[in-house]
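S1.2 Input.
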Amino acid sequence: MQSENAIEVRDLKKKFKVFYDKGTSLKERILFRKRNRYEERWVLSGISFDVKKGEAIGLVGHNGCGKSTTLKLLTRIIYPDEGSIEIKGRVSSMIELGAGFHPDMSGRENIYIYASIFGLTKKEIDERMDDIIEFSELEEFLDNPVRTYSSGMYTRLAFSVAINVKADVLLIDEILAVGDANFQAKCFNKLREIKANGTTIVIVSHALSQIEQICERSIWIQDGLIKAEGTPREVHPQYMAFMGQKRDEINEKAAARKAEKEKQNAKAEKKDEKKPAPKEKNNKRWGNGKAEITSIRLTDENGKKKSTFAVGESFNVEIEYDVKEEVKNAVFGIGIFRSDGLNCYGTNTTIDKLDEFDLTESGKFTIKLKNVLLLPGEYTIDIAIECDRGTPVDYYREIERFNMYSVYGDVGAARIEHEWVK
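S1.3 Output.
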């Protein structure tokens, strides 16, 4: 092992047996042997990486890619089928917080039990007891049984023990959302402090902003292999673009299934020679019906369909419409709303002083949204066609959804440049 490294992982492979219907007793296993069939599923197919002393790295990837398995292998909760792991120094892990707590014992007694799991002696625990109690902010409840604690108090106490072990290597798995906002800020400050003191940190999290605040390097694991490795600003945009593409594929499949189902229902109605039932009024759509919005498509600057964009990225909103009756003095409008309903942005062709125009035939409008600076999160789009300065022709609420992400943490502002193109 090289002297500057705290962790060395070489060609790590791990598989699990997935049983179809495993018998629970010896009798069942003998009588129903077919139930013991299983398949071998490789979660890790050969990953290698080094972590230097005092370095903080983040492991990212979608559910089931092998992030948490890697962390459990590093803690030696499970062991690899192939490959090797070398770790230098004492290891503290925040994977299953409070896994060693006894519900009938007091918080103070559980501190001794939990800290001993990390390899601390009674003398070391006594020396750190005051720091643990102070950090947990649970002094008045410390002599009560742990079963009387709320879930937040429970994890607070466990986190306080794990963070004060003063380990050489700290392994963290999706547990940084501990307690209220003040306590979370306290946890982040503590992590920065122990990192500054030379502790090596490995974090698994779906919250990319957490990794960006603490880590110098990110490793993207995909299908049991390392897909990309580098600084968070290099790796996270690639990962988010991949996840956005997967989400688009899922949405397309769902739309195809819905269309197929509607087609089958239409055939069944025709076969029964029944009049189709009147459509229920859509409370998200209203207007006089002279023109209809038929589709909306979000694309990047190259015309590729997308639904996930980086903060500051430009993208297009392509609107297709069908004209049933001439619309005089038409106005097109767009509104962007946060998932909680907050109006973040809106404009229309009148505000932007476009020449008045009439809709006489079906066509298409494209709104080019430039340098979209919105906070990371999910948003919905409203599209409207109006006439005579306010009369709804077709107002469609929540016609489309999209997501924003940032490689710089939770930053952004509601400022968007735009251009209308007919």
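S1.4 Remarks. The chain is about 30% helix and 35% strand.
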